[in-house]
Specification:
The chain is built from 5 helices and 5 strands; from the N terminus they run αβααβαββαβ. The chain has 150 residues and is of the alpha+beta class. Strands 1, 2, 3, 4 and 5 form a 5-stranded mixed sheet that branches. 27% of the residues are buried.
């Protein structure tokens, strides 16, 4: 991430790494933007990692989505009022993407879904973003963006 920021000419980004399945060491409402690049099945990267199809089991999706929900809930506490929370995976699975994002919204009335800052062609009808390998000639990704109400 640091290297990507440098390559893109982005300043003012402080990159930290913690186990977000547990409480994070930040005061509530500390950050303007929090990005959750959630651990996932990686099914969006199958063309570069074909072994995934042989190592992933149906039960893994339940385990991963539970972990993703915990991480998103913990990370959301660190977002300032009016701030943004970005949730992303390299998975194509609804259980890890829309289901996690929709569940988060249903449990957090202080957040609203917003349109991700991404070209229109990647937006789905429900205002999430999806990059599909077979359509976009790239690895598959999912992006949800939320804003914490003032």
């Amino acid at each position: 991430l640091r290297e990507n920021c440098v390559n893109q000419g982005v300043d003012g980004v402080r990159v930290v790494q913690y186990d977000a399945e547990t409480s994070l060491p930040f005061a509530d409402e500390s950050f303007d933007v929090v990005v959750v690049d959630a651990p996932c099945s990686g099914t969006g990267t199958i063309r570069h990692n074909p072994e995934i199809r042989y190592t992933i089991a149906p039960a893994d999706f339940d385990e991963l989505s539970s972990k993703q929900r915990r991480i998103l809930a913990n990370a959301s506490k660190s977002v300032k009022k009016g701030g943004r929370l970005i949730y992303s995976t390299c998975s194509l699975e609804i259980e890890e993407n829309e289901a996690v994002a929709d569940d988060f919204l249903s449990r957090n009335a202080d957040y609203e879904k917003i349109r991700p800052s991404i070209p229109e062609r990647f937006l789905s009808d429900d205002s999430y973003a999806r990059i599909m390998p077979h359509l976009d000639r790239a690895d598959g990704f999912f992006i949800a963006a939320f804003k914490k109400r003032d």
